[in-house]
Please model this.
Amino acid sequence: MRRIPSREPPHSAGNETGVANLIEYIIISAVLMALFVVILLLVNANFMLGPANTLAYSAFTDVGNGVSTRIVDTYAIAPETGNISSRFDIPDDIGGRGYSVEISSSGSAQQVIVMRDNVITKISIAGIGSSRRAGGNTTGAGMNIISYDSGGFA
Model:
């Protein structure tokens, strides 16, 4: 009786097991890395940006109150004829990033709006009412000026 040789190597079952283990390791590692990246993105958004925005909102409220007070004080001592200017400084940045301050007059309501990206704080300018109109904008950088001119600004 003549024996017919097999076309497969004698230890093919062992080779398939090794390759299957390697593929399983690669697939599990890839899935875990993908989950790790997703978790890192969620942690940054929920645990870092949320508290940073809350801190910025509180700081913007303080800046808005300070600017509102300075505007009211300037208008309180404003002469009937002539002009007056007041220089003041606000923080250059809050949370390591810049911001802008805008004075908005809509109807009889006048507001100091402090904003950056999606964090916006609106503070009413109390004390000058609709008798005096306020307007303008600035940023935190440098020295800021509040000016009053009895003849008005062009």
